[in-house]
DNA sequence: GCCAACGTTGGC
DNA sequence: GCCAACGTTGGC
């Protein structure tokens, strides 16, 4: 079992959007970064727990919890010229980009703000607060996960 | 909107 | 393979 943090811009897709899907399952498409892709392809497994994180918004932080219900498979939006995630260099023989499906578990009563997370000495080494943490999919270790969940 | 910190691209 | 230019991310 592994733990992750998936970033999303709530203006585009928020925790509420995820919660409002009837079966609560959504494919996490549009990841166009090789390191994040490698995680999705090789490391993210069924049952892994995922913090949902809102970025580029008023209340930046962790907003809820989801679970991986389908492991890495081909992200179809890379072949769709109409999609903003279209990648003309990708072919169906050799798809470049992957995605996983996640299932909504719960939304936290209160957003665990980045500002607050930065003040927690217990998890000062978390990837999220390190310099240059631009990955949209970040691994979270078990201690960090348990600690943060305990704050929600 | 600004800007730091990356990641990607492409000419050589 | 190097590296400058460019594009993107994301907090503020």
UniProtKB/TrEMBL annotation:
Source organism: Paraglaciecola psychrophila 170
CDD domains noted in UniProt: EVE
Keyword Phosphoprotein found: yes
Superkingdom field: Bacteria
Keywords assigned by UniProt, alphabetized: Phosphoprotein
Statement: the UniProt record of this protein carries the keyword Phosphoprotein: yes
Record domain EVE: where: 2-149
Source organism phylogeny: Bacteria, Pseudomonadati, Pseudomonadota, Gammaproteobacteria, Alteromonadales
Pfam families: EVE
Transmembrane segment boundaries: none
Descriptive protein name: EVE domain-containing protein
């Amino acid at each position: 079992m592994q733990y992750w943090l998936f970033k999303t811009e709530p203006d585009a897709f928020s925790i509420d959007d995820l919660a409002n899907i009837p079966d609560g399952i959504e494919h996490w498409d549009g990841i166009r970064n090789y390191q994040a892709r490698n995680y999705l392809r090789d490391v993210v497994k069924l049952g892994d727990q995922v913090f949902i994180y809102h970025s580029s918004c008023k209340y930046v932080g962790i907003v809820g919890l989801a679970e991986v219900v389908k492991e890495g498979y081909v992200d179809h939006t890379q072949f769709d010229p109409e999609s903003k995630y279209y990648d003309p260099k990708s072919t169906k023989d050799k798809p470049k980009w992957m995605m996983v499906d996640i299932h909504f578990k719960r939304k936290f009563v209160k957003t665990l703000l980045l500002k607050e997370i930065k003040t927690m000495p217990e998890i000062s080494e978390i990837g999220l607060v390190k310099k240059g943490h631009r990955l949209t999919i970040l691994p979270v270790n078990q201690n960090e996960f348990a600690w943060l969940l305990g704050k929600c």
